[in-house]
């Protein structure tokens, strides 16, 4: 299945009602659409995956499997596409959901953190200050980790408020994304936090090269 998925990853156009007989980890990655609008956009659009009922369920199961039995208090999703997977994870785990927002959208007291996103643009991220108490164990969710700048800013916000994203032993929470690329920033996150993603090892080099 991995070889077939590798050969047809971007060209395959699966029916949104079709479910393959063998549903190995990552089968749903072929549902994603490649970038056709140029370098100012992300290189893949996973939103078609979210339209597939079984694809979304299996994606969520793969993301949460490493955290089974872990003491998670809350799920936080990163603006904006992380809201989709984050809210789904919170509902599955029966936990609360916290939205970590781009600056300027919250009308309450916030904590801000500047960062550089995957495209090299300077931005600011915010979180409300009354949602995270010291020691609260947070599962951070985003759609994708490319350079790691956005996820690292979210980690800093949570930890500045006393929340716990992960600890060496045991790991009380962690980080989940469809893909965590093997970039410098991605490696920094993998080395320090418990992580879950959906890309099989055989396909990881293609994702890292944006192929």
UniProtKB/TrEMBL annotation:
GO molecular function: adenine phosphoribosyltransferase activity
Pathway assigned in UniProt: Purine metabolism; AMP biosynthesis via salvage pathway; AMP from adenine: step 1/1
Gene Ontology cellular component terms for the protein in this record: cytoplasm
Protein origin, superkingdom: Eukaryota
Localisation per UniProt entry: Cytoplasm
GO BP terms, alphabetized: purine ribonucleoside salvage
Top EC class of this enzyme: transferase
EC number(s) per entry: 2.4.2.7
Boundaries of every Phosphoribosyltransferase domain copy: 59-162
Keywords assigned by UniProt, alphabetized: Cytoplasm, Glycosyltransferase, Purine salvage, Transferase
Reactions this protein catalyses: AMP + diphosphate = 5-phospho-alpha-D-ribose 1-diphosphate + adenine
Family: Belongs to the purine/pyrimidine phosphoribosyltransferase family.
Xref: PANTHER family: ADENINE PHOSPHORIBOSYLTRANSFERASE, PHOSPHORIBOSYLTRANSFERASE DOMAIN-CONTAINING PROTEIN
Subunit description: Homodimer.
Protein's name according to its UniProt entry: adenine phosphoribosyltransferase
């Amino acid at each position: 299945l991995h070889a077939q998925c590798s050969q047809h990853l971007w060209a395959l156009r699966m029916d949104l009602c079709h479910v393959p007989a063998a549903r190995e980890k990552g089968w749903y990655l072929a549902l994603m659409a490649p970038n056709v609008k140029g370098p100012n956009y992300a290189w893949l659009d996973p939103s078609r995956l979210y339209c597939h009922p079984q694809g979304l369920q299996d994606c969520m199961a793969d993301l949460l499997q490493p955290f089974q039995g872990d003491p998670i208090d809350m799920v936080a999703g990163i603006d904006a596409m992380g809201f989709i997977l984050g809210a789904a994870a919170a509902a599955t785990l029966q936990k609360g959901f916290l939205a970590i927002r781009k600056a300027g959208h919250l009308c309450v007291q916030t904590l801000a953190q500047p960062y550089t996103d995957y495209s090299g643009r300077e931005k600011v991220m915010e979180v409300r200050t009354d949602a995270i108490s010291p020691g609260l164990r947070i599962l951070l969710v985003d759609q994708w980790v490319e350079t790691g700048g956005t996820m690292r800013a979210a980690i800093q916000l949570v930890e500045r408020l006393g929340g716990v994203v992960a600890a060496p032993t045991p790991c009380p929470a962690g980080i989940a994304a469809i893909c965590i690329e093997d970039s410098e920033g991605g490696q920094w996150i993998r080395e320090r936090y418990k992580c879950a993603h959906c890309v099989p090892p055989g396909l990881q080099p293609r994702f890292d090269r944006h192929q």
